[in-house]
Amino acid sequence: MNKPTDKSGFFAALEDSPSADTFLRGLWKDNPVFVQVLGMCPVLAVTNTSMNALAMGLATAFVLLMSNVLVSSLRHFIPKQVRIASYILIIATFVTITDYAIMAISVELHKSLGAFISLIVVNCLILSRAEAFASKNTVGQSMLDALGMGVGFTFALLCLGVVREVLGSGSVFGFGLFPDGFQNWIVMILPAGGFFTLAIWLLLFNILKQKRATT
Amino acid sequence: MKEESLWYIFINASLINNFVLAYFLGICPFLGVSGKLETATKMGGAVTFVMLISSVCAYGINAFLIAVGAPFLQLISFIVVIASTVQLVEMFVRKMSPALFRALGIFLPLITTNCAILGLALFQTQKGYGMVESLVYALGAGAGFTLALVLIAGLRERLEFAEVPGVVKGTALTLLIAGILSLSFMGFAGLGG
């Protein structure tokens, strides 16, 4: 929970900005994982292989897009007092759809992601975009925002997933990378590896930010 | 699944598959309110309480939904139950201890979006636990969550006085500690087996 960056992201979302900026913001400047540190549970839990990370990222992006569109188009009809509950219900509906869709596409994938697909409901990222952006902006803007954030989230998940799979299993998307002599770093695919990898990515981002601040 | 003893379920949920350190559930409050030992303990208590109630409700709802033949409503009903329970706890805490209410701040309503609670409801359904087993599972998960939170809060209080480079401060440092804690919790893997 990085208070200042959180706030700047929130205020930035309030400002009217051109469409391209709305889209790009989620990708880099306000990246949901590296800058806002939102939605940590799936980031750490399902990134032990690149494939899982990609699937999770796409599923989250889909839910984000659909719920942002719906929230934004209903923004004049939802009473202020029950808005959070309504958002959660909207999100839960789309997550259920996603859950059944993934089961239909690949049972194997559904098994390896397990309960974490259902847990997209409680991904703070989606609720925070609904509350901070979609409920105050037009449908088109919200769609762009959701796309940017979704792609940014998927990108971050892939960053973790690829690093963990390369080091932990010596492969990328299931294709072997190294000759037989490579000793897998088992720790990277274990829970602890998730914490370490994310910590190191955050460190890199901090160093970049500091460098930019000094120059 | 049915032959698991209650003791094993408890140990499994609290230590072997600790919700925070092995399943990564409830990371947000874990990073957010783990700065002070006292707040962490109380947060753990509140979460455990919500877990217990929502676990029982989830069991009932699941049985009902299966009887009605509408399992696709599972997720939506779970989240509604959890949200109402959190609302209850919030009102209770505000009445009983305003100081605690202020200390927990935004994280109290955010228990609703605490994955640990929804995760618990989903896992117990997946594992096909009965009423008593679900309760024990919830108790174990709550205890594990509190334990992880207290451990990390204790470590972070110590680190306040340590000199660390500026770049590492904040979330990155907490994550590194969590990683090491998670490693040490793997030592419990053989327990209760």
From TrEMBL, chain B:
GO BP terms, alphabetized: electron transport chain
InterPro entries for this protein: Ion_transpt_RnfA/RsxA, NqrDE/RnfAE, NqrDE/RnfAE_oxidrdctase
Family listed: Belongs to the NqrDE/RnfAE family.
Organism: Phaeodactylibacter xiamenensis
Any one annotated GO CC term: plasma membrane
Protein's cellular compartments: Cell membrane; Endomembrane system
Protein name: Ion-translocating oxidoreductase complex subunit A
Gene name as annotated: rnfA
The protein's role, per its UniProt record: Part of a membrane-bound complex that couples electron transfer with translocation of ions across the membrane.
Keywords on record: Cell membrane, Electron transport, Membrane, Translocase, Transmembrane, Transmembrane helix, Transport
Its membrane topology: Multi-pass membrane protein
EC number: 7.-.-.-
Primary location recorded for the protein, binned into one broad class: membrane
PANTHER family cross-referenced by the UniProt entry: INTEGRAL MEMBRANE PROTEIN OF SOXR-REDUCING COMPLEX (PTHR30335), ION-TRANSLOCATING OXIDOREDUCTASE COMPLEX SUBUNIT A (PTHR30335:SF0)
